[in-house]
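Question (not urgent): is this output format expected?
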Amino acid sequence: MIVVEYHNIELDHCINCKGVWFDSGELELLLKSVGAETTSPLLVELATHPEAATLEKKRKCPICGHKMRKTRPHEEPELVIDVCQSGDGLWFDGGEVAQLISKQPEKLLGKQDSEKQVINFLEEVFQV
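Got this back:
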């Protein structure tokens, strides 16, 4: 994994699978950096979702080493996010961050075109 800094936020990116690891609170910082408002920490919100039934192999958290749970935010069948059960962070496979952001326009209430800014950044840096 490599570390990419954006607006003083260090994002961990796997150059092989194009996945992205967000430490607890980093996704909210990324959204806030482009004027988005979130009502609650996404890690807490996603941790309350039921575990998703999927054939995807469970990943280990890069911080604590425990297997993470897989969840589907907002009942999106094509999107499965890995959530550390200890609260260390979130893992997104390549393209999943952009999918999540594009499905939540009601949370992007700040600057004009903030959703587009985040997605453009993710496409440039992470080649999603």
